[in-house]
Amino acid sequence: MLCDKRPRRIYRLSPLTLGEATEKARHMRRQRDAMIVGLILAGIAVALLAAKAYGRGSEIRNPKSVIRNPPSSGRPKHTNLATQGGGGVEQGSPSYPWSPRPAARFPSRPAANVVIATVRRMTVTAYCPCEICCGKYADGITASGLPVTANGGRFVAAPKEYPFGALITIPGYPAKSPAPVPVLDRGGAITGDRLDVYFPTHAEALAWGVRQLDVTVVE
Asked: Closest Cα partner for 213 from 173, 182, 170?
């Protein structure tokens, strides 16, 4: 059996004082704390990079969530609009992440000041303020209480369904400049689709005669 007779070295550790041991322990703790802090910071940096990369990926996967070509003034552009292939794609306007809802539709109704005009076929006769035409009512005062000189002596007698003040356009009346004339008078024989235009003289009323006309009634 062979024996190793080489001389062996004996290492002896020099004894440390209490102060040296304490300082060495503190130094090791500082190194450990610095390593832990470094690892935490590295983890935070990696998490931020991953979140940023994920956000870019979601924008690429959903391009509608990105506003393309936003206007510099902060308001949408409304010029140079065109529709491509009937698909409703407008050029020159930004796209938004939401889709506009169609405007609500409500049944329309005429406003209080809306003028309603109707055209009717009516029999139009004529009269004057004489006793032949007006009988006992030949006093120069219309049924509305206004004199026959109101509106320059240009008005019409109409059935009760047409209120006083309603305007009626009658072709050829007045003769020189036809214009809408008000309803200011009534007549016992003026019923249904019949009107009686006023003239200051009996000769003018006879010259008018009886006419079938398309009149426009503005109520």
From this structure: 170
- Alpha carbons 153 and 169: distance in angstroms, whole number: 15
Where in the chain are the domains?
19-67, 117-218
* SS3 track for 67-120: CCCCCCCCCCCCCCCCECCCCCCECCCCCCCCCCCCCCCCCCCCCCCCCCEEEE
CATH number, domain 117-218: 2.40.40.10
pLDDT tens digits, 29-76: 888 888 888 888 888 888 888 888 776 655 555 555 444 555 554 544
Please list the residues that pair with 117 across neighbouring strands. 218
Q: What is the DSSP letter of 192?
A: S
Residues 83-121 pLDDT 10s: 444 444 444 445 545 454 554 444 444 445 555 689 999
Contact 64, 58 (CB under 8 A): no
